[in-house]
Amino acid sequence: MLFKQLGLSAELLRAVEEQGYNEATPIQCKAIPHILEGHDILAGAQTGTGKTAAFTLPMLQRLERKIDGPRRIRALILTPTRELAAQVNESVHTYGKYRPIRSMEIYGGVSPRPQITKIRRGVDVVIATPGRLLDHVRQGNINLSAVEMFVLDEADRMLDMGFIRDIKQIIKELPAKRQNMLFSATFSTEIRTLANKLLNKPTEIQVARRNTTVDRVKQIVMPVDKARKRELLSEQIGKGNWRQVLVFTRTKHGANRLAKQLNGDGIDTSAIHGGKGQGARTKALRDFKAGQVRVLVATDIAARGLDIDKLPHVVNFELPHVAEDYVHRIGRTARAGQDGTAISLVCVDELKLLKDIEKLLQHEIEKEFVPGYEIDKRIKAEPIHKGKPPRGGVSRRTKSFGTNVRSKPRPGKHARATMQARRRAG
Question: What is the CA radius of gyration of the chain?
Fold first, then answer.
């Protein structure tokens, strides 16, 4: 369906066409008419499906009418990360360029003073992370009593990061009469419970099955010894002449170390993670999008926050602890109808993590054994720890690539590092 068939105004259609879009995605086709009619929405959509435009376009249209008196916050969008907040605000600016709408992002990790100044000048739309927004509410800097439209974006990620209490506190500050929209990649029991409390007779929209990956992503596992991962990655980038590569590591230290090593190999690389200041993160992402940086190494803080058009390659230098995060990582590529490749460099330590991912996907991922990087079967698996490894003790597992040896998996907790994630998100 074409955008011009969805009932959008001429000003919005002009802005959309200037971005090179004519045909709407499935989530946009289903959501936009219902939002324009004022219905509450419960939408299931993976990242990369065009969901941001699905709620920003009709929101901008419903905010078109003029109101007398000073500007008050009429629309609130909550996001889990700083990067996503900034990108949603960028979309509001892009699509609302021909409308007299003011918007701003609010998140932690930066001084609150400029945010307070913008709030006092008057703003129509606020895009915020829960922690910093609640800080402003408690300090009396912001008034949410005039909010007409409320969007909870990537609600499943919000719950994963432990924001549920903050969200409930923010909802208490909103007027009872408002339009609500909840977007989530998955519909867990917790999401359903939240939706039942938040939404009023919602229209339910589902455009992707739970935990499915983007169909156009070609997934490959390259088995390699841990000590040779960086060497293989550098070779693949050079041999394939990859020009834009997003690489994921598990830790901030690992991201910094890999970026330094790749720069030493002559590959322009930057790192982005929660340990870097917002200015450094913004610059690294801007340089990567502009092609000035060839490789961007990121931790999972960027798995859902980054929105990069035509990103051809995602590499899992290290598999994530949580299988669902693999889906979010590789969802950075193959967006908006483009093709993409997700390559995972997997050592013997990560076979349990790989098994968990394949169980989630309900199929095995294609293995590609690269000549010259044959696995040394004498190397035994060692445990992967989320923090500092305990003194002494190595895994008794003997499983390796190409064998059918069964052994008892190492015990371990799979709970997410909630508080750490909240601090990173702001």
Answer: 22
Question: What are the backbone dihedrals phi and psi of residue 112, each rounded to the nearest 5 degrees, phi first?
Answer: -75, -15
Query: Closest Cα partner for 361 from 317, 401, 335, 325?
Result: 325
Single-letter residue type at 235:
E
Residue ranges of domains in the chain, CATH in brackets: 3-206 (3.40.50.300), 217-425 (3.40.50.300)
Whether the pTM exceeds 0.70: the reply is no
Closest residue by Cα to residue 236 from 273, 265, 271: 265
Reduced to 3 states (helix: H, G, I; strand: E, B; else coil), residue 160 is helix
419 to 5, 111, 112, 157: CA distances (angstroms): 45, 21, 21, 13
pLDDT single digits (tens) 342-374: 999 999 999 999 999 998 888 899 999 999 999
Spatial separation of the C-alpha atoms in residues 124 and 309, rounded to whole Å? 28
Percent above pLDDT 90 for the chain: 58
The conformation of residue 192, written as its DSSP 8-state character, comes to: H
- Which pair of structure tokens corresponds to residue 253? 């230290």
Closest CA to 48 of 395, 326, 308, 382: 308
CA-to-CA distance for 419 and 411, rounded, in angstroms? Answer: 22
Judge whether residue 416 has pLDDT over 50.
Answer: no
Q: How many CB atoms lie within 10 A of CB 1?
A: 14
Is residue 255 within 8 A of residue 271, CB to CB? The reply is yes
Q: At 339, is the pLDDT very low, low, confident or very high (cuts 50, 70, 90)?
A: confident
Does residue 285 come out as left (phi exceeding 0), alpha (psi in the -120 to 50 range) or beta? Answer: alpha
Task: Provide φ and ψ at 134, rounded to 5°.
Answer: -65, -35
Tokens 């000003």 identify what position? 11
Task: Judge whether 91 and 56 are in contact, CB under 8 Å.
Answer: yes
Round to whole Å and give the CA distance between 322 and 302: 15
